[in-house]
Amino acid sequence: MSTKAKKARKPASKTKADKVVLLSGGNPQIAKGYGDEPVQTYITAMPDWKRAIGKRVDALVTKHVPKVHKAVKWNSPFYGMEQDLYFLSFHCFNKYVKLTFFRGSSLSPPPPGVSKYPAVRYFDIREDDKVDETQLVSWIKQAAALPGEKM
């Protein structure tokens, strides 16, 4: 078989997001990495309606915390003011996307979801939720102004 014929049968190349494995709850399995690229790979791989939530949260953080540091660790995007010191993360579950504010009990008002760790608070976003973006932006700005959590 000629080289041309072999090349013609070769499948189209796939993007990083096409190769991502989805773990339980549809959470993308993304290799640990620092910067915007691994975060965007994670968001692109988020399934269905969850992708829009990931894009919106990322856009709000990027807009309101211009010097934010981004990373993917433990198959979740992290946001902080310094590398390895983070104020926010999110993670996909079957029926919602969970935002984790690492010092959320210090926010006013604190996000509604409680944790076994007293400082941590959660905010879950479901498919049909109407999110109060003003409140979400307030939490993001407040969280970014607090000391980050070492991760």
What features would you describe in this structure?
- By secondary structure, this protein is α+β, with helices and mostly antiparallel strands.
- The model is unreliable at 1-17 (pLDDT under 50).
- The protein starts with a helix and ends with a strand.
- It has one domain (21-150): Aspartate Aminotransferase, domain 1, CATH 3.90.1150.200.
- The longest helix has 17 residues, at 48-64.
- The protein has helices at residues 3-9, 36-45, 48-64, 133-145; strands at 21-22, 28-29, 33-34, 69-73, 76-82, 85-92, 96-101, 113-114, 121-126, 149-150.
Describe, in short, the structure shown.
The chain has helices spanning 3-9, 36-45, 48-64, 133-145; strands spanning 21-22, 28-29, 33-34, 69-73, 76-82, 85-92, 96-101, 113-114, 121-126, 149-150.
